[in-house]
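User: Please predict the structure of the protein below. I'd like the answer in structure-token form so I can feed it into my own downstream comparison script.

Assistant: Understood. Taking the following sequence of 345 residues as input:
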Amino acid sequence: MTRSILVAGAGGVGKTTVAAAIAVAAARRGLRTLVVTVDPARRLADALGLESLGDEPAPHEDEPMLWAAMLDSTASWRAVAMRHADPDVATRLADNEFFQAAAEHFPASQAYAAADQAATFVQARAWDLVVVDTPPSGGGIDFFASPGQMADLVGGRLLRWITGGPLPGRRFFFDRAARPMLRIAGSILGSDLLERVSEFLLDLRTTYDGVSQRGREIERVLREASIVVVTTADPFPVAEAVRFYRELPRLASTPAAVLFNRALPESWVGPRIPDSISPELAQNAERWSAEALRQKDVREEFSSRYAAQVATLPWTPDPPTDLNGLMRLIAEDGVVVPWERFGIA
């Protein structure tokens, strides 16, 4: 059985580094591990010390139990069309400029394509563990909600009203009656925009059954996954983590571990400042002490309010850019990471 860990959280909190660290830790414990990211930046490749990443999982040349991939959401969304529509409709739909715009610019469609591909990797059972660095949109909520959102989109009331219900001959009626009228309108407006939009909506509507069924499969995979919510003690990432945690009961069957990244040591709180140091250094030490105390209070409040299992990763001057650096990150004294929750203790 392939297990999965989904790493969620706001952008810029170190999700990709955490996902890479978990994957390396698992691989060095003997698990065939795949780590994937949806981030088009090079963060995962940099964290793993790789020159590049492709859409297909590739083995890490220095870590025999580790594979990595970077999902291309646009290509994945085209694959969704090819899977759920008749061949002639799928090609026309995938080549439609409105479909391409949705694939490239709508967060919900990108999240769905990413969730679909991640679920495919889990269902392939080629690895013991799949670690997914989820898109930051909505703090990770969009990734989990995307299967239902896409089913609502292609089968929703607005689209049904525009295209009509699933009546026999709907395409025939469009070709024989609606299309000529739209062409007349296009000649008046000087554009075939209305015809292209209508054809796109009709083609999109035909994918409903497949998208709906696949969405339920994806939701099952996501509900069975272990979840790590990565945040820092800064206000916006904490707000995103709170939002995620509040939505979690309807998204997953197990509680999430909350990982506060870039944590200052608690030993910095209230240190004894020698009289011999300069006033400037004493003032600087007091500021760092106050910040360490603030971070500690934020973690304790989060844990108390949401009964969450809170862990920490230490602040480091530079993010790790190789496998050993990732392992050092999670092997520092005082670091509390619930790896046993993920079966890789």
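That's the full token string. Confidence is low (pLDDT under 50) at residues 161-165, 167-191.
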